[in-house]
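Extended Data, panel c. Modelled sequence:
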Amino acid sequence: MNKPKLDRVPGDLIRKIQLILEQGPDLDGTEKILSLLGCPPIDEQFLAGLRIYSDFLPRAADYPFSPEQRYLHVLWDAFDRSLFSLSMTVAFPLRRMIAKRLFRHCGKNFTSEGEVRFNFGQFLSVGDDVFFNRGSFIDTKGGVTIGDAVGIGEFVRIFTHTHSESLHSVRTYSPVTIKEYAKIFSGAMILPGVTIGRQAIVAGGAVVTTDVPENSVVAGVPARVIRERRTEGRTGADLDHVWLHRGAFQDE
């Protein structure tokens, strides 16, 4: 199947935004992008002094945002308030362009639906052909690594930190790893320090508190292995983890 052709307006918009992103974005570039997306005019001093929620989280003291990182976070969140977010020929390539500049690593063909949130983009690493569905939250403070061809379902929650019960200000950070060809279904929750094995499946609504073996299916609260994945002898790319129409919205 051939890639869908962008009509003139989305195509021109994406090209203009890409040119701006390639130079920064700085304050002026961020203003221009917000304007192109139809956002109301914003006072330059307000934008220059804007501090996002993550600026007030404890990790920001050790890893303060650069102006560019902060502007990229603003653009990621602000885009969901734009009518252009309803156009997939704008939304998918724009989020990918931001991710490639904001994430620690972003592989080819990354695709994200709307209302996906993360607190420190620089601690998030995603491989090739990764898909985030609508409304997921990824607490990246302890680091999150997602392998190739992983699908994250609607309203999934991933956490990488905990608080002491006796002293809330004491925090422990533990990374989460999701290995290649895993699938995390809607509403699942993954707790700090967990590794999801290659080709594993986490059932919808599961709460994962311990590592998940590869090629297994886990379900429940807390999640337990209920069976092996039914691969019928297929592995890796043969599992056909294609999240949208084949060939659509791929990197050039």
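The chain has a mean pLDDT of 93. This feature is highlighted in the accompanying rendering.
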